[in-house]
Design brief:
457 residues; alpha/beta; Metallo-beta-lactamase, Chain A; Rossmann fold; 2 domains; seven-stranded mixed sheet; globular; binds zinc ion
Length: 457
């Protein structure tokens, strides 16, 4: 392979949706910039990779650029520090703040699931604190230099603070998209265009599929709430704590304020979800114009008379005593743990109640079993008959679908020389690569895990 000015190593997130981890090396100066350092999540064979040493020397990495605060993009950062990294970390302020909470939450989960086994702990509290001390924040569109490269953060519109990182030198440029939002979002600003760029490393989670329309998803949600409340049942919504929880909460808030649904109690029963909702509120300037206009006209977001944020275990337990006509939003999004399990245990056997699935349910999870129509399920050792209605709404994804990814690339067709598709299952990434080549005439490839490429930047 001819050596060019810059090299990219695809260490994680190649042919896979998790473990995002890319290395940019300046072949002239040997400066090394890591993009993301995420956790591998999924089957245990994949998760075992988290315990292996990094395929590079952490002490030799100069900088780390973080795209956003999902664990599959940040989850191994404290381990990177533990293993010798002492350079600077950069992200937007909300990404740093959500990451901090995620690290402690992740450590908690590791402590619980590892049962005290030290080999099953990736990092400790000290490693988290060290990582945060190395971490600097930057705003969108304020460029800065790392070695000879000029670096800029652009809004990816995926979750609060999510970033695409632009790396350029002498008019030649490369962008890592991280995950790309399903714009327009009811909360976030739209994904910024790539602009004139030569190379892109782009996500492809939904490279082979399109989502339901946004109007359809809102009226489906409204219908599910109305029907469940008419029957006198409880509506349970398992939701991911970052973005999905806030999106659904904001939809419900709007529906209640416009008297489109019955004014029943709404419980946000997730300590992590409550914390992230607080961070969304704090960083309102990152939200879209509609939301900010609404705030300026005196409407406090994520605050309405029916909403109760139940932080403590006692408050959470007390939800059972409330009238059955209620809405409960709780983690985890795939019912793999968290407080949603207590509610499912209680209400899945009730034919008047509804479980609403608004996110992707991975094979092997309880959420997937329920989605696939299991008649009974086991929760905390107890057999529970599934008599509740199971409803599914797909449109709340926070990723761009196939058509929108294609359009996103097309806008920069004049300058793009190559698109590298990452963060997608092979089937999805390969399908999108074919579409980009066929429809746009731009070279698109799906790099293998561990592959290196040389580019002119
Ligand atoms: Zn993400």
């Amino acid at each position: 392979m001819d050596k060019k000015k810059t090299r990219i190593d695809f260490f994680g997130g190649a042919e896979s949706v998790t473990g995002s981890n890319f290395l940019v090396t300046d072949n002239k100066t040997d400066l090394k910039i890591l993009i993301d350092c995420g956790l591998f999540q999924g089957p245990s064979a994949l998760e075992d990779l988290n315990y292996e040493s990094f395929p590079f020397e952490p002490a030799q990495i100069d900088f780390l650029l973080v795209t956003h605060a999902h664990l599959d993009h940040i989850g191994r950062i404290p381990k990177l520090v533990r293993d010798g990294f002492s350079g600077k970390i950069y992200s937007t302020p909300p990404t740093k703040e959500i990451s901090e909470y995620s690290f402690f939450d992740s450590l908690n989960v590791q402590n619980k699931s590892g049962g005290g086994d030290k080999d099953k702990i990736l990092f400790n509290e000290q490693d988290i604190k060290k990582a945060l001390a190395l971490w600097e924040t930057v705003e969108y569109d304020q460029s800065f230099n790392l070695g000879e490269y000029q670096i800029v953060a652009k809004d990816a519109g995926h979750i609060l603070g999510s970033t695409m990182w632009g790396i350029s030198r002498n008019g030649r440029s490369l962008i890592f998209t991280g995950d790309l939002g399903n714009s327009p979002s009811n909360l976030l600003k739209d994904t910024e265009p790539l602009g004139p760029v030569n190379y892109v490393v782009m996500e492809s989670v939904y490279g082979d599929r399109n989502h339901e329309g946004k109007k359809a998803r809102r009226s489906l949600l409204e219908d599910v709430i109305e029907e469940t409340m008419k029957k006198g049942g409880t509506l349970m919504i398992p939701a991911f704590s970052i973005e999905r929880t806030q999106q659904i909460l904001y939809e419900i808030e709007g529906m209640m304020e416009n008297s489109r649904i019955p004014l029943v109690p709404v419980f946000l029963d997730s300590p992590f979800g409550i914390e992230v909702t607080r961070i969304y509120k704090k960083y309102a300037k990152y939200l879209n114009d509609d939301v900010r206009d609404s705030i300026e006209s005196g409407n406090e977001i994520f605050r309405f008379p029916q909403l109760q944020m139940t932080l403590s275990t006692e408050q959470s337990k007390a939800i059972f005593n409330a009238n059955p006509r209620k809405i409960i939003i709780a983690g985890s999004g795939m019912s793999t743990g968290g407080r949603i399990l207590h509610h499912e245990k209680r209400y899945l056997s009730d034919p008047k109640s509804t479980l609403l699935l608004i996110g992707y349910q991975q094979v092997g999870t309880l959420g997937r079993l329920i989605q696939d129509g299991a008649k009974t399920i086991k929760i905390m050792g107890e057999e529970i008959p599934v008599n509740a209605r199971i409803a599914v709404i797909h449109g709340y994804s926070s990723h761009k679908d196939s058509d929108h990814l294609l359009h996103f690339v097309d806008e920069s067709a004049d300058t793009l020389e190559k698109v590298y598709l990452a963060m997608g299952e092979p089937k999805s990434a390969l399908f999108l690569a074919q579409r980009i080549r066929d429809y746009l005439g731009i070279d698109a490839r799906v790099p293998k895990a561990g592959e290196k490429v040389e580019i002119d930047v």
